[in-house]
Amino acid sequence: xSKTQRYSSSTGPKPSFxxxxxxxxxxxYAIGGGAAFAxxxxxxxxxxxxxxxxxxxxxxxxxxxxxxxxxxxxxxAPAVATPITPIVEDDNSKPMRDKxxxxxxxxxxxxxxxxxxxxxxSLWQAAKELGTEPKLCVRDEWIRAEGGKGLSCVLxxxxxxxxxxxxxSVVHGPASAALIKQMRARGKxxxxxxxxxxxxxxxxxxxxxxxxNPNAPTAHLNYRYLELVKEGExxxxxxxxxxxxxxxxxxxxxxxxxxxxxxxKDVCDAHDKEYYPKFKKWCDDYFYIPHRNEARGVGGIFxxxxxxxxxxxxxxxxxxxxxxxxGDHNEIFKFVQQCGLSFVDQYIPIMKKRWNTPFTPEMKQxxxxxxxxxxxxxxxxxxGTKFGLATPGARIESIMCSLPLTAxxxxxxxxxxxxxxxxxVKVLKTPKDWAV
Amino acid sequence: xSKTQRYSSSTGPKPSFxxxxxxxxxxxYAIGGGAAFAxxxxxxxxxxxxxxxxxxxxxxxxxxxxxxxxxxxxxxAPAVATPITPIVEDDNSKPMRDKxxxxxxxxxxxxxxxxxxxxxxSLWQAAKELGTEPKLCVRDEWIRAEGGKGLSCVLxxxxxxxxxxxxxSVVHGPASAALIKQMRARGKxxxxxxxxxxxxxxxxxxxxxxxxNPNAPTAHLNYRYLELVKEGExxxxxxxxxxxxxxxxxxxxxxxxxxxxxxxKDVCDAHDKEYYPKFKKWCDDYFYIPHRNEARGVGGIFxxxxxxxxxxxxxxxxxxxxxxxxGDHNEIFKFVQQCGLSFVDQYIPIMKKRWNTPFTPEMKQxxxxxxxxxxxxxxxxxxGTKFGLATPGARIESIMCSLPLTAxxxxxxxxxxxxxxxxxVKVLKTPKDWAV
Lengths: 436, 436
Hints:
Two copies of one chain form a homodimer.
Chain A: H1 27-31, H2 57-62, H3 96-122, H4 124-130, E1 138-143, E2 148-156, E3 161-174, H5 177-188, E4 198-211, E5 218-230, E6 238-248, H6 254-271, H7 275-286, E7 288-289, E8 294-295, E9 299-306, H8 323-326, H9 329-341, H10 343-354, H11 361-381, H12 383-390, H13 396-399, E10 406-408, H14 420-429
Antiparallel strand pairs in A: 1-2, 2-3, 3-4, 4-5, 5-6, 6-9, 7-8
């Protein structure tokens, strides 16, 4: 498998970020990183506007160039504006919580805009001829009673996507007994005093995208930063990054799996050659459905407890990081940023190849059965979902947003030997090395 | 609410049981109760025939009278034959495991036949005019490597039913560490020696029926008998019954909930006036989805650890049973039999009223969302599912058979105030007393 199988990014949107192009209300996030406490970043300057400003049909189709023709768009394309240039993230004088809070919103916007752009692109002809309007991601904001808030961008039953949810949450408050228990179980005993009272801070962006076309794969992403602070203190006793991305096809296109893995491997390799092999295996191990004896999909990367040495080393393998990275929290943050911002390059080129390819009703039915497996993993095994459901006051709509719009369960359905369906299952039972 | 709201059973099929009317292969079950060990009951006399004998279209429509017109069927109706008369179940000289093994098959057949009969009835006109053939329950048999076997009756995508699964399993073998741990957690420490090695025996029938029509409710049933026997001994150290039935509508018809509850209340009352209130509340408590803050449905009954005094009293409330019942295992078995055999009376009259009433696409969509909640309960909370998924070698196809054929999840879907959908949710948040 040669590296040339990675899709050229020249077919993708040409991002050009200018905070002035952000919709009303969003500029705050791009420039609000100086707030003393991270949650302040998410206070709209007095406004309770939670819906994106309604676009007129003319807006929708005149302000966006057709972005995927040849990559030579002349007009600026705010729907796919990609804030590559960091604003506050490079400022090492700012607390990490503030920088991560700003970053997850930037990542969210980049992905939601790419989803919107594909919906628009897919209706380009119909829109010109029939005046059809695309469905775009709907934003809604929520506030957590115990502290913090979040912003969800969700598209349902679009032309390309069955369901796409890109969720940001930046929350803080007392660390619940359940959270502390989970932290102890994960090896953070060393920094948690028996009688200590702790506060937590968490900023993350999580995303699940389920396309309509059974040839097009589902994608998942999650990048998060957590802190535990002892009551009355300022400096966290523990702070770490976690996250990853993975791909779940209903039909296997090897070149899609290779492309998805190759993009993220390149990001990993630029930081440490040991990252990708470790995080790829971690992903295969995590997204495994024991009761079905198969992986959820063709994987990607997964990591947790990624920390710098000056806080605490939780996992053995962290010790193998270069001393530079172990000593520098900002270096890990840079890695997480580059992972998050590379998702559009990982996934959108695949979608552009697959969203409109022909399929049969039988293929759609197979996709629905695979959706059923996705639901099984998320509800039975996913640690995040389990933890969320067990947490009083957790936002159930956000937790369940990862589930597909539709799913199906048939009794005793086994694909015919030698079929394309059986080919997928075979790969799910024996993870492959996709990237070179 | 008067008792007259219970639907008259005269509109239902008139059962008349004769073992000679059973399909080939089934007679073994009706007469095989004398086997020394229960699993022997399930050995087909040398045959590996697992499929019901294929009926010709003429068979399908000439051998069945149209059963639901006026209840005055002249011909015998094997498809709805209801083996009310016990064959071996009354013989107190037989071990309970043998009697229960025979009974669960009888119950399974009664329900599967009623499901088939409704599919046939629903296509009566079409069949006469167009020669359409109904889909009937497909039987498949499985063998458990560690000991025992099962028979599944499953219908998918019929005319009336989206999915109907009636599953019997009669299994035995070494009691796993997980099972023993669960038994200890449930208070059976008193009879389990620290270093003891135990065998288990379990016979049960479980059923979930999901109809197509959103006006028609989903129904669930499970009745089971378990034994723990110390290695090398004959007499069980613990033996108990568990089970129940419950109804899950997408749209509330109060008279349906009343009828379903009234039938099972009458069965309970005939044994002990304290049964129904206790078991009704137990059901409301058990089929509750904490993360949605609502019940799965409008309830029914649920009980567990139902035992006679001479074995072991596990639960406080059992002590309140009359001394006659506490001293007589057979009395409890009779109660379980009457519960199981009354299901057809509980549910089929409701189905006959609802399966063909008009509905809109919006109603179908609401039903699909309710199916999603059903999946959430079963995968996240149901103890049986959790235990099954955690058990190595468990039969995954049987465990997942309870899931609907199709389900749906929408982000932030809340029914409009005052709507029929909101009316259902209101009742699910505050369980009602349905029976008088």
